[in-house]
Amino acid sequence: MIALTLTEIKDFTSHLLLKDTFDSFYFIEGEIVTFNTFRIDGFIQKEFFDTDTDLPEYSYWKNIREYCFSLIRGKRTPLSFRFIFSLSHKNIARLIEQNHLPLDPAEIQGLYLNIRFDGKSLACVTGSSFKTFSMDKTLEHAWDEMVEKFFRQKQIAFEK
What we know:
Elements: E1 3-6, H1 9-17, E2 26-33, E3 37-41, E4 59-60, H2 65-72, E5 80-86, H3 89-98, E6 108-117, E7 122-130, H4 138-153, E8 158-159
Antiparallel strand pairs: 1-7, 1-8, 2-3, 2-4, 2-5, 5-6, 6-7
């Protein structure tokens, strides 16, 4: 787990709300505080859909982003917001494979990005969750390194 301070708030929120930077991540949950507090659960209610298509457990950020932007958009800065993203199952398997880790992707609950704006500062904290107990931190370290590399590739300014 690492904590990153995102030093260019306006640039990062542009990546978050206007660009497709985080679109391939699962949206786990979020909260936006403006004139009211809006809480959003990313868990897909499969009963809502008429189709038998295999739906993921959580929505992708690309399907929620515009709605969140509509809540934040305006002349006033939100009082706060927080979003929790997770790497998709497919990308977790890819990360394990790329790092030659002796792990079964099915044993990983999630690799998370916790993004929090408190009205003044913006931070991102990584996290990992396994379905079973493990003392092995190699996946967690690989995830932390991947997040830093991802931010550098997208030219997102941060400090550790």
